[in-house]
Amino acid sequence: MKEAKNEEILETDYLIIGAGAVGMAFADIILAETNANIIMVDKHHKPGGHWNLAYPFVRLHQPSTYYGVSSTELGENGKDEIGFNKGLKHLASGAAINAYYDDIMNYKYLPSGRVKFFPMCEYKGDGKFTSLLTNEMHEVKVNKKTVDATYMKTKVPASHPPNYIVDADVNFIPINGLPKLTEAPSEFVIIGGGKTGIDACLWLLEHNVNPDKITWIVSRDAWLIDRKNLQPSEEYLEDYLQYLALQFEALEEADSISELFEKLEKSGVLIRIDQNVKPQMFRGATISKLELEQLRRIKNVVRKGRVKHVSKDNISFIEGSIPVKEHFVCVDCSANALSHAKSKPVFSKDTITLQIIRGIQIVFSAAMIAHIEASDKDEKLKNELCKVIELPSSDTDWLRMLLGTLVNEELWKEDENLKMWLHDNRLDGFSDLVANISEDNKKLQALVNRIESSKKPAIEKLKYFEAELS
């Protein structure tokens, strides 16, 4: 169908492509810290990006306290009282996150009079986008910047086909299909060892499926982070500080990368599901001790590399094959959540490309980039303050991620404005808690001193190991 061009040329200060988590976090700061107006364009029918397609039982794997947009709390600020996250800060459900972004758009952004939202539209480049419903094409005059909030291209199994062959007679479903099952299969075959695969296994166990009926296909085991160490509250502040001190001290003491990972595991900085299998992957996923106990109940874990072909009789891999039971269900959890696109400068003339600039804190990164964009700094300095950290994949990417985070944070601390902003911004999570530790709290002050004394040697060792990896 031929595009029908709208003769009216729209005008805006910022054209944001994507109204998902990062686009919304960026817009929130621009609205709060400037007088600029915004146009947001998204393929989905409402804001929230990939959360619109996520599986029904998905939850955050980081506390809700530092997710979402800076100006508005997400969900409960308390602790979960039931389930495998019991005793830790609340993890918002996918449904709650969807409602949260919908409310922010409809009750905050749009009523401000400074935001226009065009859902069900595809961006074509050069300030042009087309409605997926009417084929009408719009053109936008952008006075300041075009913001690409889609560069990391979040993927979910419901919208991305598997990268292996599946025969037509196989009962094959994405993870979204689990709650829709109407008959008990003979066996659940979960394909994917990342967070989505973990969630599928935990959901089955939570619903009293016998762990012996679960076959978990894991191409690479992952290092995980104990969620207890990343709780933004005074109750768990000692755990957080201990976590930082132990990783810096492990770096300071280790003479090799293999020795480093041994020390990180021994001290509880990193954990693995199977003590007999060395992880080859790190993507920053967190896990609770209760979840870890549950996952260890699954004994039929298959490690034969990537899946090549799923038939009604067997599953073949790069390294052999396994038989499957008649009437099994195959659950795809293999989509890589975030695209590992090659990094590029965040600021480039009239374009901003939203990427990660602290660890795996995606929404915080978008908010920080917006704050720096709102400043009077030149492009060179803006990019220096927003050095991109590539998404982790392999186990040794833990080193690169931590080094990038520490280098950026040291630069931020030199800017008094940025320090104050970090303390006041809820997406940061910890700066204000640490800054407000009482001088009388000798235990916490001792931990802070350990961190400060080990940080610089840790950074130097990270640089040494990174050079070794390169």
Q: Which radius of gyration do the C-alpha atoms yield? A: 23 Å
Beta-strand percent range: 15-25%
> Biggest sheet: strands, sense, closure?
8 strands, mixed
Total strand count, please? 19
Rounded average pLDDT: 94
Assign the structural class, choosing from mainly alpha, mainly beta, alpha/beta, alpha+beta, or little secondary structure.
alpha/beta
N-C termini distance: 50 Å
- Supply the number of helical segments: 12
Shape assignment: globular
- What percentage of residues falls in helices of 4 or more residues? 25-40%
Unreliable spans are none
Structural summary, described in words:
By secondary structure, the chain is an alpha/beta fold. The protein is built from twelve helices and 19 strands. It has helices at 21-33, 94-109, 195-206, 237-253, 257-266, 289-295, 362-373, 379-385, 397-413, 416-424, 431-435, 442-469; strands at residues 4-17, 38-41, 115-118, 121-125, 128-131, 136-148, 165-166, 172-174, 188-191, 214-217, 222-226, 281-287, 301-302, 307-310, 314-317, 320-323, 329-332, 347-348, 351-353. Strands 1, 2, 3, 4, 5, 6, 18 and 19 form an eight-stranded mixed sheet that branches. Strands 8-17-9-10-13 form a five-stranded parallel sheet, with helices on one face. Strand 5 and strand 6 form a beta hairpin. It is globular.
